[in-house]
Amino acid sequence: MKGSPLQNRFVLISGCSGAGKSTLLADLRARGYPVVEEPGRRIIAHELASGGKALPWVDAAAFLHRAIDVALKDMEMAKAHSGWVFFDRGLVDAASALQALTGEPVLHPTCSIHRYHGRVFMTPPWPEIYLTDSERRHGFEAATAEHRRLMETLPTLGYDVIHLPKLSPSARADFVLATLGGGILTEA
Hints:
alpha/beta; Rossmann fold; 5-stranded parallel sheet
């Protein structure tokens, strides 16, 4: 399924937690590309600071509903940028997790209307660099289950899944830009 030319500029970086998405995106940001931070981490930071309950380990459904709302707002705000815009996780991640958790049919109606570039870059499980922290409390087994769910979901939404090689952040950024056509905006 082909998205609009505007959405073709929105590149989703997804995959296994703790597998180098944020460091890859930091490299792309350093090269001058706009990067949209992961909705989940922003929500968790806000909820922890404010004493809120929309946390994945307290009320996962509320957290995922918020993540969907944030991802939709992120996509709307990203329209102000020209050229590639890179997203650290996003709508598909939150909608697929909510549907898996609750059975609520949000994935296809929501993600069919609001689309990213046709190629989604996936970080594979990488146990050698996986770490937990105050915002990522789940273990590696849960992270790999999340990866499997996304690997099943993305093709059903018409996305071409591109596996990111286990390389340095700079080499991964080179790979992403080369795969997208040398970093020059092209219609997919």
